[in-house]
Amino acid sequence: MRQIITHFTDDDLYKFTMCCAVIDNYPRAQVKYSFVDRAGTCYPPGFGSELQRQVALLEGVVVTEDEIEYMKRRCPYIPVWFYTFLKGFRYDRWQVEVRQDDEGRLSVAFEGPWSSTILLEVKVLAIISELYYEMTGQAGQLDYNGHYLRSKEKAQRLIDAGCYFSDFGTRRRASFEAQDTSVRAMAEYGAVSSGPGRFTGTSNVYLAMKYDLKPIGTMAHELICALAGIYGPQMANYIAMRTWSSTFRGALGTFLYDTYGWDIFSLNFSEDYANMFKGLRVDSGDNYAELDKIVAKYRSLGIDPSSKQVVFSNALDTDAAIALQRYAAGKCLPSYGIGTHFTNDFPGVKPLNIVIKLFAAKITESWTFYNDTCKLSEDAGKYTGRPEVVRRFKEALHMPL
């Protein structure tokens, strides 16, 4: 089996920006992650062994000077010292443990320094997704010419509808070629279109470099989850906002608020942070109801919501984004991060429903125990964490059990 990940920056931007913030603020923190297949997929025989081999191959994937120069040019908010870290960074196979049971179900566990394990998540998910189609024989069904045309049509519809949108599809793509094809089609159409919308870029740093696009992204739930485990969930959003602003000084100011639901975030979202952060990202719940709550919160703080960005990224497709655009226009500055619908949309092929989530953290390696954590989004189906931990966090946040 060929090596699936061959470029260091074949990864989402938010992993690099969060890695930078972690080193800057919590350089000795240790974490544990776990792979979750929400559909309980049975993987082909030998899948676990090949996955472990692919993880080992990552040890030979290192950042290039071209990648660093591109990031310096396109990501001026990242401090120069971080590139020195990247030049010396090497993946470590021993931070990943893969198991596959007799029925084919997959278990993947991660443990180690937060500053290094943080760069494994997206790459391992992309490997699992592509490897699954290879080992089940579905890779031969992937029609890339048709995928290019469908991607171009999606771009046309979104741009004509006035949508500002980007590709967020690295983690659950059908293959690297699928994401490459989709980004290429949208970039080519966007370059010649005169419509009111815009293809703004991709979360994948390597593909952004390849097509000279803007890399898109800020943070993920794991930042708030880790801080909630270490300090408690009540103030995790506030500490995360403070941490983020101390590293990036107002840049990358789109905050992902839904790790523990709207209510506790709203209590933490004071006027100073509401003014500092340029907007919020909606990643769970009913998009329309969430937008209404965001608009009301800004107004309660005396801030014009139409001046604030709201990024929607909750399992969107083209139709859903266009419908949201009609509702959100004038209420905020809406944009759309679309993932699986862009990079794993092939007739007869079902995308995997897979994630990797942080579930334990400690502030330093000298601690003799980890602190449990979980994620409680606006959708109960997106909860992650052990049931007893979910219950304990809900009690702490006065959420209905």
Fraction of residues in helix: 40-55%
Count of β-strands: 12
Q: Helix tally?
A: 17
Strand order across the largest sheet: 6-5-4-10-9-8-7
Measured by DSSP, the beta-strand proportion falls in 5-15%
Q: What is the N-to-C succession of helices and strands?
A: HEHHHEEHHHEHEHEHHEHHEHEHEHEEH
Would you tell me the overall average pLDDT? 97
Description:
- By secondary structure, the chain is of the alpha/beta class.
- It contains 17 helices and 12 strands.
- It has helices at residues 13-25, 47-57, 65-74, 81-88, 114-117, 121-135, 144-160, 176-192, 205-210, 221-231, 236-248, 262-268, 271-276, 287-300, 318-328, 340-343, 387-396; strands at residues 30-37, 96-100, 106-113, 164-167, 198-202, 214-215, 254-256, 279-282, 309-312, 333-338, 354-362, 371-372.
- The strands form 2 sheets. Strands 6-5-4-10-9-8-7 form a 7-stranded parallel beta sheet. Strands 2-3-1-11-12 form a 5-stranded antiparallel beta sheet.
- Strand 4, helix 8 and strand 5 form a beta-alpha-beta unit.
- The radius of gyration is 20 Å and the shape is globular.
Jot down its keywords.
single chain; 7-stranded parallel sheet; 401 residues; 15% strand; alpha/beta; 5-stranded antiparallel sheet; 17 helices
Write a brief structural summary:
The chain is of the alpha/beta class.
Write the layout of secondary structure elements.
Layout: H1 13-25, E1 30-37, H2 47-57, H3 65-74, H4 81-88, E2 96-100, E3 106-113, H5 114-117, H6 121-135, H7 144-160, E4 164-167, H8 176-192, E5 198-202, H9 205-210, E6 214-215, H10 221-231, H11 236-248, E7 254-256, H12 262-268, H13 271-276, E8 279-282, H14 287-300, E9 309-312, H15 318-328, E10 333-338, H16 340-343, E11 354-362, E12 371-372, H17 387-396
Parallel strand pairs: 4-5, 4-10, 5-6, 7-8, 8-9, 9-10
Antiparallel strand pairs: 1-3, 1-11, 2-3, 11-12
Helix pairs in contact: 1-11, 2-6, 7-8, 10-11
